[in-house]
Design brief:
Layout (H helix, E strand, L loop, with lengths): L5 E15 L2 H7 L2 H22 L2 E6 L2 E6 L8 H23 L5 E14 L7 E4 L1 H7 L1
Antiparallel strand pairs: 1-3, 1-4, 2-3, 4-5
Helix pairs in contact: 2-3
């Protein structure tokens, strides 16, 4: 069985990462159900914003949310759209905090530059991005 690798280079992309400050400690004080409900509510709200801004959700890992602008198709003003998205995410979390009487804070990283994008592996195919642009945004 032959595996086909799908890969493309993109010169102008903006990457966005967000994770919840103190998430590990938070998991110790919440039931599993409450934790999943919270993450689902937050990530679903972010998903709605991804659609509104025509961005590309790459993946979630635990409490980390990874989005890109400018892939898989080139997009003029990719960074500006991502900044507007980031500000709306912060506003969404602020509204969530007021409604749920919580104090969720996000740590956000963004970076623009070139990336390699594609699909690799044999199971559970996932479109992903690699490169220094991604690494800096994630840190």
């Amino acid at each position: 069985h032959e595996t086909k690798i799908i890969v493309n280079a993109h010169a102008e992309v903006t990457c966005f990462f967000a994770d919840i400050v103190g998430f590990t400690e938070m998991t110790a004080s919440m039931s599993a159900e409450d934790l999943i409900i919270m993450l689902n509510t937050l990530f679903s709200g972010m998903d709605d914003l991804v659609v509104a801004y025509k961005l590309e959700k790459i993946k979630t890992i635990g409490d980390c949310y990874f989005v890109a602008s400018g892939v898989p198709e080139y997009r003029l003003k990719h960074a500006e759209y991502m900044m507007e998205f980031a500000l709306d995410v912060l506003e969404f979390v602020e509204k969530y905090n007021k409604a749920q009487n919580r104090n969720i804070q996000l740590r956000i990283g963004m970076n623009s530059g070139n990336v390699v994008a594609g699909v690799i592996g044999k199971q559970k195919y996932c479109y992903d991005l690699w490169g220094n642009t991604v690494n800096i945004a994630s840190r």
